[in-house]
Write a structure and sequence with these properties.
mainly alpha, START domain-containing protein 10, START_lipid-bd_dom, 107 residues, flat, 1 helix, two-stranded antiparallel ribbon, single chain
Length: 107
Amino acid sequence: MIQSQGPSNCTLTYMAQVDPRGSLPKWVVNKSSHFLAPHAMKKISKACLKYAEWKQRHSPNFKPWLYPEQTTLPTIPLSELSIQHAESLENIDESSLAETPEREDSD
């Protein structure tokens, strides 16, 4: 989420929820998030610095986030949407598992 903090300032918030449903050990998910999130933030930051110039060359008046009538994507009827509650999802308890240090494969 990018929030304006003035004409030349913004706050960038990056949130991620990862649930590989037990197919990866928790330590792998945690370790990768320490690398992937900062890397993604750096790329987003660089792109933001160049956005104004880029947008002037690429459909400068096309802003469907401001003008919904410009949206070309199909809409989904509300009747087709449903709410999924967390308690209905599969719950895999890994709290008793110990984290193991990284090791190289023996293959």
